[in-house]
Write a structure and sequence with these properties.
23% of the residues lie in helices and 24% in strands. With 168 residues, the chain is an alpha/beta fold. The structure holds flavin-adenine dinucleotide.
Length: 168
């Protein structure tokens, strides 16, 4: 089934830390850019949706996340291996945080459209994992690939590949 085509300025593939941070910064730096985010997961946060239950950040919460919303409360742990040091968010906290970024920052801007449970197909198309319906996106500015594996490979090989020109 083919859905009606949609238009956007930036198509972001991946609603993990990278895709959300990009969208958050773009909202702050531009007055009217429209962003469409597509992700296979049902919730924002990327691989944190799949992380094992006891995972925590390896760095203080305060240094992680998007610019417009702080993660954590800035307290120092008083027990455990991290005693005396700034808190390390648990996986559940990180997942909840990225959900708040989407629900309290990105979507209320009115400039972000989010398509969870959708697989990006290339050439600006995506497919719903629930219904199989396909949507073509007309990208006015850029397609931004924010998939962790591609980013790692691109960072090692050729950074400009991270942001590809939209094939309009
Ligand atoms: C246990 C653990 C602890 C970590 N701790 C830290 C830490 O303390 N500090 C730190 O800086 N980093 C940490 N990291 C690194 C972590 O990988 C990054 O912080 C960050 O979460 C990666 O985000 P990302 O957006 O690059 O990728 P991901 O989280 O992998 O998001 C990519 C998204 O792209 C989506 N996607 C891919 N292909 C498609 C497609 N074709 N169509 C639609 N969607 C697609 C995926 O579904 C996924 O949701 C940790 C990682 C792990 C595993």
């Amino acid at each position: 089934m083919q859905q009606p085509p949609i238009e956007t300025d930036y198509l972001v593939i991946g609603a993990g830390a990278a895709g959300l941070a990009f969208a958050d910064a773009l909202l702050a730096e531009t007055a009217d850019a429209h962003i469409t985010i597509v992700d296979r997961h049902g919730k924002p946060g990327g691989h944190w949706n799949d992380a094992y239950s006891f995972v925590t950040l390896h760095q203080p919460s305060a240094f992680y996340g998007v610019n417009s919303l702080a993660l954590g409360s800035g307290h120092k742990d008083t027990i455990g291996l991290n005693r005396g040091l700034y808190e390390l968010a648990s996986g559940a906290e990180v997942s909840g945080y990225f959900d708040r970024v989407m629900q309290q920052r990105l979507l209320p801007s009115g400039r972000v459209r989010y398509h969870p449970l959708c697989n990006a197909l290339g050439a600006g198309g995506f497919e719903s994992l629930l219904s199989g319906a396909r949507t073509q996106v007309h990208v006015r500015r850029k397609t931004v690939i924010a998939r962790f594996k591609d980013m790692a490979a691109a960072a090692m090989a050729n950074l400009p590949r991270l942001v590809e020109r939209a094939s309009v």
